[in-house]
Write a structure and sequence with these properties.
This protein is an alpha+beta fold. The protein has 9 helices and 8 strands.
Length: 294
């Protein structure tokens, strides 16, 4: 079975009380114009991996890659990432593993790959587990739903509120006209649509879930065959949509679902194995100031 890249993800654990006090300052620094500049004065240290300090300036710089509405959550994610990075570095050094980046990897990604290959047993799901999952989840295992639709895109930039309001109003006017004269859809698409599909009268062909941008996909699959009563809003503007046909996916046989189930169960098992291994590394090298998720 082909190997799959499994990201290392740890659940957020509680911050120490002292570290929590530094979160607001670190958050403000991470969202500043130049977060690469150091914090004023010596950066406090609340997180340690062995004898290696991970100071608040380093955490603040990492926070720019973990944006969140809650600065506490952003700091937690940044600190966890840095702790895992240091644990992996230390263990590769302890085991004297040769680390060489391939296929455009960063050095950190290469260390994770080499260490996991050397130390972590990544189990494969057996036949019994596959069949047990299939029997318990048949209602969720089916061929993709598909919709054949056509649309008229009334383009408006996401930041242009006035233009989006005009596009919505124009779309509602077109929907009203098409209710009276549905045969004019192709004409309207060729005249008004900003999508290249206008050359085909707005025809999009068959669409399966996940084929389009999420906001269009989500709304499209809520529609029944016929003209949508309201415009569908996406990042591109407002769409007048007509669903021409809809086919609900039929249940998958066990053989058809086998590969999908195996991929899911192996990913879950691999994540569990990686979590356990990271806890072993944390105990081996020592981590202070942050609790890796259970």
């Amino acid at each position: 079975m082909s190997s799959r890249a499994i990201p290392i993800v740890m659940d957020a654990g509680p911050l120490s009380d002292a570290a929590a006090k530094a979160t607001a300052e670190a958050h403000a620094h991470a969202h500043a114009d130049d977060p690469s500049q150091p914090l004023a004065g010596p950066a406090p240290v609340f997180v340690m991996v062995g004898d290696t300090p991970i100071d608040e300036a380093e955490i603040a710089r990492e926070m720019q890659f973990h944006r969140a509405d809650d600065p506490h959550a952003a700091r937690q994610a940044a600190a966890t990432t840095l702790v895992i990075r240091e644990l992996v570095r230390r263990e590769c050094e302890r085991l004297q593993l040769a680390v060489e980046a391939i296929d455009g990897e960063t050095e950190d990604e290469a260390r994770v790959r080499v260490l996991v290959d050397a130390e972590v047993a990544l189990p494969e799901a057996d036949e019994a587990a596959l069949r047990q999952y299939y029997e318990a989840n048949q209602a969720r295992l089916h061929h993709p739903d598909a919709i054949r639709a056509r649309h008229i895109l009334l383009a408006a930039a996401p930041s242009d509120i006035a233009a989006r309001q005009r596009a919505q109003q124009h779309g509602e006017e077109l929907i009203g006209a098409l209710r009276e004269e549905p045969d004019r859809f192709i004409e309207f698409a060729m005249r008004h649509s900003a999508c290249p599909s206008r050359e085909q009268g707005g025809e999009l062909g068959w669409i399966e879930r996940g084929d389009t941008v999420p906001e269009f996909d989500r709304q499209l699959f809520m529609l029944k065959p016929g003209m949508a009563g309201l415009t569908v809003e996406t990042r591109y503007g407002h769409h007048v949509v007509e669903v021409l046909e809809r086919v609900d996916g039929e249940p998958l046989s066990f053989e058809d679902a086998r590969e999908r189930i195996a991929a899911y169960l192996e990913t879950q098992a691999q994540q569990n194995a990686l979590h356990q291994y990271l806890h072993i590394l944390a105990q081996r090298h020592g981590v202070e100031g942050i609790a890796l998720g259970d």
